[in-house]
Amino acid sequence: MTSITTTPELSAWLRKTVDFLNGIGIVTRQVESIEGFLPCVRIVKGELEFTSQCEVSDILHEAGHIATVPAQFRSYLDGDVSPAQRKMLQEISDAGLDPDEPLYRAVIQCSDPEATAWGWAAAEHIGIPLEIRILDHHFSDAGADQRMGLELGYHFGIHGLSHAGFCVTSRSMAKHTGRPLYPNLAFWTQPVIQPQNGSVRWPMQA
Which superkingdom, per the lineage (predicted)? Predict the structure, then answer.
């Protein structure tokens, strides 16, 4: 059984974030040390490991990568997300899916901007202060610009989330589709999405 316990020294916002992530089905567990792309958090086969020194902004961003991937591909994410993205794209290309397929759209809308926008939406839901949702030194010292774009609703990732079915970007679209206006999301994690034409079936997430 996977342990999702945490230690008392975690910051209040980090603890709330970890509780939220585990609550929406993204397994998130504390470890003593990490070697990886980021010093305090990493993705391991579709799950998150973090240390007590992890920044809330980092864990939310990595969680965004997991959340925006269709569930049948989640276990592909292991360390650097780029190989998993290439593998997903290759599989849907080999399957000959139409670009209008919901699965196709979801796979091409789970890159870095979407992870960033997802993290912001999650932070809004949790109530995390703006200045620690994305730190100033992130994105090559352009963290403040990222925050502004997300707060104003002009960030590229918001449109990606919209195309993937998470939300819409205008009140008129919200009224027309019934989907929520960003930063509210219709769901927190992409489910298993099977092709509509039934030509190929992916297994449920392992």
Answer: Bacteria
Is there a cis peptide before residue 113, judged by omega within 30 degrees of 0? no
Q: Which residues pair with 47 in a beta bridge?
A: 44
Asked whether the predicted pLDDT for residue 3 surpasses 80, the reply is no
17 touches 48 (CB < 8 A) = no
Q: Is 147 left (phi over 0), alpha (psi -120 to 50) or beta?
A: alpha
Provide the 10 A C-beta neighbour count for residue 84.
21
Class of residue 135 by CB neighbours under 10 A (exposed 0-12, middle 13-18, buried 19+): middle
Please spell the DSSP secondary structure of 89-132, one letter per residue: HHHHHHTT--TTSHHHHHHHT-SHHHHHHHHHHHHHHHT--HHH
Q: Are 19 and 30 in contact (CB under 8 A)?
A: no
- Cβ atoms of residues 110 and 153 within 8 Å: no
> Residues 171-191: pLDDT tens digits?
999 999 999 999 999 999 999
User: Residue 175: which H helix or E strand, with range?
Assistant: helix 171-177
Model pTM above 0.85: yes
Q: Do you know the residue count of the chain? A: 206
Structure tokens at 184: 């509210």
